[in-house]
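Workshop exercise sheet. Pairs work together: one partner reads the sequence aloud, the other fills in the structure field after running the prediction. Swap roles for the next sheet.
Pair: D.N. / O.F.
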Amino acid sequence: MALLRAASTPAAVAAGGCGGVFVPFLAIGDLSGRVFAAAFGVPPDLAGAAGAVAGSRQQYRLPFTAVAMVLGVGGPKAATLTCLTTVVIAALSGLVTARAVNTLSSSLLAMIRRTRSSGG
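Structure field:
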């Protein structure tokens, strides 16, 4: 069920839906952060908070809002720095992924156009 929710929430946003998806993004990020906490030796609560921030930042593409959320909530310096680092990493990975997908889709469209023009 968690995997289905993790896939359906971004699909709902991509399709133009906006209602009732913010908290699921936080929950998906929190669960993801807690899953990887043990592997990196990070406290589960800190990893959950960082994951929640990353989940909301990545899906909504609002890095300044995520930074404001981290600074507004506050907490221990280590937690704040971890969450801010998570926002930066999520922003950079989002930019890299968007550029890669754009390049791939442009290449595929060019290939399809060449195939149609040579075949017809």
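Discussion prompt: The mean pLDDT is 76. What would you look at next?
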